[in-house]
Design a protein that fits this description.
It is globular, with a radius of gyration of 19 Å. It is built from nine helices and four strands. Strand 1 (54-57) and strand 2 form a beta hairpin. A four-stranded antiparallel sheet has the order 1-2-4-3. Helix 5 (115-123) runs antiparallel to helix 6 (129-144). By secondary structure, the protein is an alpha+beta fold.
């Protein structure tokens, strides 16, 4: 259900204290007041964001949140770290959802997978019964496939740079090429064990 405010006083209050929410989808960001708040307040804010705009992808065993605001995506990734949740930030092209025109825009996707799904469920979770049921199903899939691993954020670009600087192909990185290709495509994050295998191979 949509909720509409027609109160001028409410609008003026939001513009004054939460102006970061008023600049349209591309310029939306987490308000500074929220960023400076306690983890309890921040968790409720993220919960509301994810309730509206995230997708529980049971097929890929991950939670996905997409926005066209780069600043919002980067701040979500940083604030999730306050709860011990490591996520993947991926840039991609998508069709604008707020217009009838088939206009392609840059969008930014936050992906939470592995053991961090459990942390998200425990420390933030969702508001609605439907989304809570979806994340319970996702947790059973994550446990079944043993994706409870330690992931290394912000390393995919470094792996590609090292490979190119050494004149290597993706098949020469010490792990199966299909697995390695996911890292350069920024679809997944390598685990600590995988990174050690690559480092040992490059020696």
């Amino acid at each position: 259900k949509d909720i509409y405010f027609t109160s001028k006083a409410v609008l003026e209050y939001v513009e004054k204290h939460f102006n970061e929410l008023m600049g349209g989808s591309k310029n939306k960001d987490i308000p500074k007041l929220v960023l400076k708040s306690s983890n309890e307040v921040l968790a409720e804010f993220i919960k509301a964001l994810f309730e509206c705009d995230s997708h529980v992808n049971n097929k890929k065993r991950q939670i996905e949140y997409c926005t066209i605001s780069k600043e919002l995506a980067e701040n979500i990734q940083l604030t999730l770290l306050r709860f011990g949740i490591v996520s993947l930030l991926k840039q991609k092209k998508s069709f604008a959802s707020n217009t009838e025109e088939k206009r392609i825009v840059d969008s930014y996707e936050i992906i939470i997978s592995g053991k961090f799904v459990k942390k998200y469920s425990k420390k933030i979770s969702y508001c609605s019964t439907n989304k809570k049921q979806q994340i319970r199903k996702l947790l059973s899939e994550v446990t079944k496939h043993n994706t409870n691993i330690d992931l290394i954020p912000n390393i995919n670009g470094l792996l590609k740079r090292v490979r190119l600087e050494n004149g290597l192909t993706q098949s020469q990185m010490g792990i199966p090429r299909p697995t390695y290709a996911h890292f350069e495509q920024n679809n997944r994050l390598p685990s600590i064990d995988t990174a050690k295998k690559i480092a040992k191979h490059l020696g």
